[in-house]
Write a structure and sequence with these properties.
Structural class: alpha+beta
Largest sheet: 3 strands, antiparallel
Low-confidence stretches: none
Number of strands: 6
Strand order of the largest sheet: 1-2-3
CATH architecture of the largest domain: Roll
Number of domains: 2
Distance between the termini: 29 Å
Oligomer: single chain
CATH class of the largest domain: Mainly Beta
CATH topology of the largest domain: PH-domain like
């Protein structure tokens, strides 16, 4: 049986998007470390610059490794009864949502998504957790539309069976 992620895979641009987004934080963190150490130990300017770039290389290598492992561990499937989303490789989590509980299915993009041509498909339920974690992120526009339509079909099908209305 072919899973939904095999039919509509995540785009590898997701790795670069997440990497660049995280690197901004690492740059600021590295600068802070360098400033604090320079003030505490009165480092020379050259030493501070070398430390800064050394930290950046270390953090960049870690972040690239992390994003690739996260991408490889990411899984989602739209089966007969549930939407299943599995994320994370250090602290994995699994979200299983029955279609009867889904209230909304929508797509969106942030600024980096727009740059990299990616979309996120969100599903919402009455619970608080669904908005933050119940989404499939990093698919191209065509696949995002197909996933959204597939989920909407499942939701409509479940509503018809529950209510008896067509």
């Amino acid at each position: 049986m072919v899973t939904t992620i095999e039919q509509y895979p995540l785009h590898r641009n997701k790795i670069m998007k997440k990497f660049l987004g995280s690197m901004l934080s690492w740059i600021i963190f590295s600068m802070l470390i360098c400033v604090v150490l320079a003030l505490m130990f009165q480092f020379q300017f050259v030493s501070v610059v070398l430390l800064f770039f050394g930290l950046l290389i270390l953090f960049a290598a870690w972040q690239w490794f992390y994003e690739n492992k996260y991408f490889d561990a990411y899984f989602y499937n739209v089966d007969n009864d549930f939407l299943i989303i599995k994320k994370g490789w250090i602290t994995p989590r699994e979200i299983v949502l029955p279609y009867e509980k889904l209230q909304d299915v929508y797509m969106d993009q942030d600024i980096l998504d727009r740059i990299f041509g990616l979309w996120d498909v969100h599903v919402s339920t009455a619970t608080m957790m669904s908005g933050a974690s119940a989404h499939i992120d990093g698919v191209n526009g065509e696949n995002a539309n197909k996933i959204r339509n597939l989920l909407l079909e499942k939701v409509r099908g479940k509503q018809k069976r529950v209510t008896g209305y067509d």
